[in-house]
Amino acid sequence: MQNNGSAGKKVILLRPRGFCAGVVRAIDVVKIALDVYGAPIYVRKEIVHNRHVVEELKGLGAIFVDDLHEVPAGNRLIFSAHGVSPAVRSEAKERQLEVIDATCPLVTKVHLEAVKFARQGYGILLIGHKEHEEIEGTYGEAPKNTFIIQTEADAEAVQVPNPDRVCFLTQTTLSLDETRGIIEILRRRFPKVEGPKSQDICYATENRQMAVKAVAPLCQLLLVVGSQNSSNSKRLVEVCGKTGVPAYLIDDKSFLKEEWLQGVNTVSVTAGASAPENLVQDLIQYLMDRGFGTMEEMDIVDEDVRFQLPHELQGGMVKLTTITTSTAAPATI
Question: Which of 161, 189, 217 is the last residue of a domain?
Answer without folding.
Answer: 189
